[in-house]
Specification:
Elements (H helix, E strand, L loop, with lengths): L1 H15 L8 H8 L11 E4 L39 H9 L5 E2 L13 E3 L17 H13 L5 H5 L2 E4 L4 H8 L7 H21 L4 E5 L8 H7 L7 H25 L4 E4 L1 H9 L15 E3 L9 E2 L2 E2 L1 E3 L16 H10 L1 H11 L2
Parallel strand pairs: 1-3, 1-4, 2-3, 4-5, 5-6
Antiparallel strand pairs: 7-10, 8-9
Helix pairs in contact: 1-9, 2-12, 7-9, 10-11
């Protein structure tokens, strides 16, 4: 199967004339440009999925609002898809602000919109996925409504950042609908093209700086490795497709920057950061990094599931030694390690915020 996918991608590259480049080029991309934002006035607007969602999914429907999610932080379920903090929380710390309030909780604490708003919903994608929650286009509509209502001024938007995450739900939804591997390259093109349109639209609304996460190595997620290697090694066939997504995203972002004659758009290289941590080449060493900490007691259940009030999952004894929390999402310690691996590429961002 891996050989078939390789040949498929090789044919695709020849057909489109795409030049294959090393993924490390994303790192260079971070160091070439600077943000120009004043620390005290910066706001963060977040769009995407569960890697950045901090509590938008419905309480009655989402496992992220059930135990043991939130076990480490804040000590109870709070809508984050982890035992604690997620990427948004760490990214906000770079800007020097509190993690922005989830969109659905604005009426409860409207004063917190001064830090921005998190519009991300776990399970969503660039297009419609199996989730009933709003896709990225609808999330951007929410921001547009706030702007039209005068909640945010042009000055607010000009000194703010948008963080965009598309961590792969479009692809998992496609495969769950019996999509074929042969059809994935065409889907990847569609997803990246739509993602680029979304980035451009966010900027057109007045947000000066737009940051998008590259795709993480999905082939290393426990729900993939469980079937391919009993969670012993990453599925490199899947990761080849991930690299195609990241390659096209890099080209799309370069094109967008050429259209603005500046450095409006940035990519965060999650692939490199995840790989560094999973290979134990970072500062944090994880025991069996491809094993998940929280999992169902059998194949019928997943982390957070209950039956007649009985917990149908188990949680590992040492969460700090686990990179993955459930079958898709990192633990708080995992995200902390990823953030540490990104420190060098985010240093220029942090420095520019201080000026």
């Amino acid at each position: 199967m891996a050989k078939e996918i390789f040949h498929l991608l090789l044919f695709f590259f020849l057909l489109t004339g795409i030049q294959v480049v090393e993924s490390s080029s994303h790192n260079h991309h971070h160091h070439r440009h600077r943000y120009h934002i004043k620390l005290n006035s910066s706001k963060l607007f977040v769009f995407g999925d569960s890697y950045v969602d901090t509590g938008n999914n419905p309480v009655s429907e989402s496992r992220s609002w059930h135990k043991p999610y939130g076990l480490t932080f804040p000590g109870k379920p709070a809508g984050r898809w982890s035992d604690g903090r997620v990427f948004t929380d760490y990214f906000a710390s770079v800007i020097g602000i509190k993690s922005p309030i989830p969109y659905k909780w604005i009426k409860v604490k409207p004063e917190l919109i001064k830090y921005g708003i998190n519009f991300a919903y776990g399970g969503t994608g660039v297009f419609d996925t199996l989730s009933t929650d709003p896709n990225m286009t609808i999330q951007i509509n929410f921001l547009q409504n706030f702007i039209q209502e005068g909640v945010y001024s042009n000055l607010d938007l000009n000194s703010s950042i948008a963080l965009v995450s598309a961590a792969g739900n479009d692809y998992s939804a496609y495969l769950s609908r019996n999509g074929t591997l042969e059809g994935l390259p065409a889907l990847i093109i569609s997803v990246v093209n739509q993602l680029a349109s979304n980035l451009k639209r966010i900027h057109s609304l007045g947000v000066k700086n737009v940051v998008v996460n590259g795709l993480q190595p999905i082939g290393c997620a426990p729900y993939i490795t469980a079937s391919s290697s009993s969670r012993q090694k990453c599925n490199e066939t899947v990761n080849i497709l991930v690299k195609l997504h990241n390659l096209l995203l890099n080209q799309a972002v370069n094109k967008l920057n050429s259209e603005t004659n500046g450095s409006t758009y940035k990519i965060i290289n999650l692939y490199s950061a995840f790989t560094t941590v999973l290979n134990n080449t970072g500062n944090q060493t994880f025991t069996n990094p491809l094993q998940q900490c929280c999992k169902g007691k059998n194949s019928t259940y997943t982390c957070g599931n209950t039956e007649n009030g009985v917990e149908m999952y188990t949680v590992c004894e040492n969460r700090e030694a686990a990179f993955f929390w459930d079958d898709v999402h990192p633990t708080q310690q995992g995200w902390s390690a990823v953030f540490s691996a990104l420190q060098a590429s985010l240093h220029q961002l942090y420095s520019s915020l201080m000026h």
